[in-house]
Amino acid sequence: MTGAMDPSGGGDHPSFDPFSEEFFNDPYALYRRMRDVEPVSFNAEYGFWALFRYGDVCAAHRDWQTFSSSHGVDLSTLRTPPEIIRRLGSMIMLDPPDHDLLRSLVNRVFTPKAVSELEPMVRQVIDAQLDACDQSGFDVVGDFSGPFPVEVISQMLGVPKEDRQRIRHWIDTILRREEGSIDPTPEGVAAALESAAYFLDLVADKRAHPGDDMISRLVAARIERDDHTTARLSDDEIAGFVALLGGAGAETVTKLVANAAVLFAGDQSQWAKVVSDRAAIPRAVEEVLRYWPPSQYQGRFSLRESTLSGVTVPAGHPVLLVTGSATRDERFFDQPDRFDIDRPPSLALGFGYGVHSCLGAALARMESRIAIAGLASRWPRFEVDLDRCRRVQMANVAGYASVPLSRPS
């Protein structure tokens, strides 16, 4: 574990390293220590601050004027000059009012009513994927929760069928981090360039041959620029939208469903509740999201000095809002380390909060609910080989790369 600066000037303190084996495999014991001993912590090696308590993380999400997204959202982009970040034009790396303007273009696609109308398509995709799985056993990620979310979002975007799974593999490669490394691997850089070129070509094709899909609607959309003139989105802006939606639409549900399989395999009494009562599934989705949120932290940049839990965070530093710790905070949750699908509802911090709350949360919930229901119908009893499970090593994202599932012998 790397050393961290002690802002008070003395003593050994726990340190949070988001590129360590400890973080990739199981950071929850460390999170508990950070909340108790150093809830607002500075890591001198990487030069970032981190917030670990529920109240502080929520406050920072609400205060976008202090904790800005305009410098990037992970430690790699947060080290990039802001002028380069602005040129990327990604909605997730903008603050209001620019963020609100772009978000409004796609908000109507993700309203509860619009999402509910997608349910027949989502159900068909998920059922087909699950029907294709080996009935004696399969890999939850490789055979099921990896392929279907990107299939759903790609259909909505208008990505040709033969290209959809390429998006998932690009995302996995872009997000991968080696231990001790802030930046993407060389393969990740190559994947980012390849995917950017692909999305630009796809947008150009939709301009020439529009269809009934989200990319075509973005091509036709008009927005009001800073000078109060209206204009169409550029190809770069639309490609950035598509990359963001494709990535977010794939990763969260992939990790959430796989996490659910591992958690339920470890607590069959909880799984029995799902099998016997499908009305328990929405609560189960929320509890998986709380217990093991796929997005473990969100990156921000401190634009002005602030004080949280009695500690002053100066301006001019990256700040990580550690959701994975916040959703286990004993100060807010009763018995937070207990996985309990009957837990009273709370703020779904795992889908973000404030201006950058997850645009596709309603869709992610629906996909997860249908996926868990499909597993319950086909696999009322199952086991997971924990020794063969593999976790991902990714920036911001946590979960499993492989979850072998089988019927009990």
Descriptive report:
The protein has 18 helices and 14 strands. With 409 residues, the protein is of the alpha+beta class. A 5-stranded mixed sheet has the order 1-2-10-7-3, with helices on one face. Strands 4-14-11 form a 3-stranded antiparallel sheet. Strands 5-6 form a two-stranded antiparallel ribbon. It is globular and about 65 Å long. It starts with 20 loop residues before the first helix and ends with a strand.
Instruction: Name the overall outline.
Output: globular
Question: What structural class do the secondary elements suggest?
Answer: alpha+beta
Q: Record the strand order, biggest sheet.
A: 1-2-10-7-3
CATH superfamily: Cytochrome P450
Number-wise, the strands total: 14
Taken as a percent bin, the fraction of beta residues is 5-15%
CATH class: Mainly Alpha
CATH architecture: Orthogonal Bundle
**Rg of Cα set:** 21 Å
Give the structure's gist in a few sentences.
The chain is built from 18 helices and 14 strands. By secondary structure, it is α+β, with helices and mostly antiparallel strands. Mean pLDDT is 91; it is low at 1-11.
